[in-house]
Write a structure and sequence with these properties.
three-stranded antiparallel sheet
């Protein structure tokens, strides 16, 4: 059985507060939206570029999709992209990996970046090109890709 990870990116202070509380409740934007935004491995670089540009020292918490359960839904955005939404809180004790990263990963907006860990080194493969960027030392894993037949309620 393949372990499929979903990722939450946030400032260290948010993660530290979640560890103290035992649960991650999301950001103010998540509270407004009514769910916690998560990313697939293929979406992490785009999420960093779009929502965390110019921010340093971010935490990426990786959760096994099976541990999150039925509260995780793959839903279309206004632009049609399928995004991961977690309805409810995230139990931080279920995080399989927690990494402090120092973005940004610069990715052209018309390409999809895939983060991959090989021999303990995180690399970013950019779809549609021969480019490969060594992002930093680390161990984020490949993750699921949202499919059109994903669970919806």
């Amino acid at each position: 059985m393949t372990r499929r990870l979903v990722h939450r990116i946030c400032p260290p202070g948010q993660w530290e507060a979640a560890v103290k509380a035992g649960v991650y409740l999301g950001s103010a934007a998540d509270a407004r939206d009514g769910f916690i935004n998560l990313s697939t491995g293929a979406q992490v670089a785009g999420t960093l570029e779009k929502h965390f540009a110019r921010q340093k020292d971010l935490v990426v918490g990786a959760f096994d999709e099976a541990d999150v359960g039925e509260r995780l839904r793959c839903e279309p955005s206004q632009g049609g992209e399928l995004l991961l939404h977690l309805y409810g809180q995230a139990d931080v004790s279920l995080a399989r990996e927690v990494e402090l990263i120092d973005p940004p990963l610069l990715v052209a907006s018309d390409r999809v970046a895939h983060l991959r860990s090989t021999a303990g080194k995180l690399t970013c493969d950019i779809e549609g090109s021969a480019d490969r960027v060594d992002a930093r030392e680390g161990s984020l894993s490949d993750s699921m890709t949202c499919a059109a037949n994903s669970r919806r309620t």
